[in-house]
Amino acid sequence: MLTLIFGSMSVYADFGDTTLKYGMRGSDVKTLQTKLKTLGYFNTNATSYFGSVTKASVVKFQRAKGLTADGIVGKNTFAALGKTTAKVTATSRGTAASTKASSIIATAKKYMGVKYVWGGESPSGFDCSGYMQYVFGKNGISLPRTAAQQYQKGTWVNKANLKAGDLVFFSTYKAAASHVGIYLGNGDFIHASTSKGVTISELSSTYYSQRYLGAKRVN
């Protein structure tokens, strides 16, 4: 059971709603590593980074429990781990936006419905990272061109601590960051989708929750 603290109010959320996978960082990853070590599947110190050693440990654990051995820690794997207890302090899921974040989001929403164009980086057509570069550039923030490069910028943000204006990344057609959007709060993000153009989607949707990679704060 994961405890999220909002001011003086505590709310409880199933830790199994979080998906952890290769390339992610944060306290949830460290908690996972500590639990695996306790169970004898992780033989080094917890690092908070989900690298190849952690993935191999997860695969070994999943095989032992008769689960799909994909190295991705979702609801079924967390259940087998005993729903590890963790405690974090959060202000979200990212409801309050700073003035800068509000401006970024307002700019992003101006281009709702703009068609998807591979390599596109203008209102005549965007790809996902071109859209991010354009929107943030309009707000005085310089971003590199590709999703993988943008994933290297800013500071890491735990999924439980997302705030409006954060960049959210996904591994879609390759293992590394290959898709990116802007978190809006309340579980939604805006992005340039290959099928719908600039649109708003839910992080909790089956497609995106399974491919969520991590988040960065650059504003």
**Rg from Cα:** 18 Å
Shape: elongated
Instruction: Give the topology string: H per helix, E per strand.
Output: EEHHHEHEEHHEEEEEHE
What ranges have pLDDT less than 50 throughout 5 or more consecutive residues?
1-17, 84-96
Give the percentage of residues in beta strands.
15-25%
Q: How would you classify the helix and strand content by structural class?
A: alpha+beta
| Average of pLDDT | 84
Name of the CATH class of the largest domain: Alpha Beta
Number of strands: 11
Count of alpha and pi helical runs = 7
Assign the CATH topology of the largest domain.
endopeptidase fold (from Nostoc punctiforme)
CATH architecture of the largest domain: Alpha-Beta Complex
Distance between the termini: 31 Å
Q: How would you characterize the overall build of this protein?
A:
With 219 residues, this protein is of the alpha+beta class. It folds into 2 domains: 2-89, PGBD-like superfamily/PGBD (Muramoyl-pentapeptide Carboxypeptidase, domain 1); 99-217, endopeptidase fold (from Nostoc punctiforme) (Alpha-Beta Complex), CATH 3.90.1720. 29% of the residues lie in helices and 23% in strands. It has helices at 27-38, 52-64, 75-81, 99-109, 128-138, 147-150, 206-211, and strands at 2-6, 9-13, 86-89, 121-122, 125-126, 155-157, 167-170, 179-185, 188-193, 197-202, 212-217. A hairpin with a 3-residue loop joins strand 9 and strand 10 (197-202). Helix 4 packs across helix 5 (128-138). It is elongated, with a radius of gyration of 18 Å.
